[in-house]
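Sequence and fold:
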Amino acid sequence: MKALNVVAAFLGGIALGAVAGILFAPEKGTDTRSKIAEVLRKKGIRLTREEMDDLADQIASEVKDAD
């Protein structure tokens, strides 16, 4: 069970790092959010603009808290 926790933490870190990299990339925020929304739509996940903004804010706060 301990190994499973380590793997889950590792994968979570990878995902958080990838999202942080996308959010802090030198593109406009609207372009980045559009790309994220497109990827999510391809996976069958549909978010409203407000939900997307909330998601981006949550990720940004997690990244800031990790510092």
